[in-house]
Amino acid sequence: MRLARQHKNKFDFLSIGIYLALICFGWINIYAATIGSQDGSIFDLSQPYGKQLLFMGLSVVLGAIIFAIDAKFYERFASIVYLIAIVLLLGLFVFGKEINGATSWYAIGSFTFQPSELVKVAVSLALAKYLSDMQTSISRPLDQLNSILLVLLPTVLILLQNDAGSALVFLSFFFVIYREGLPNSHLYILVYLVILTLVAIKLGVLIALGFSALFFLIQPLIPKGKYKFKLWSFLAILGSGIVAVIARYFYDNILQPHQRDRLNLWLGFEEDPEKLADLRRTILYNLNESQKAISSGGFSGKGFLQGTRTIGNFVPEQHTDYIFSTVGEEWGFIGSSLVVILFVTLMLRIIYLANLQKNPFSRIYGMGVVAVLFTHFAINIGMVIGLFPTVGIPLPFFSYGGSSLWGFTILLFIFLKLDSNRLNEW
Question: Which domain range does residue 310 map to?
Answer without folding.
Answer: 2-425
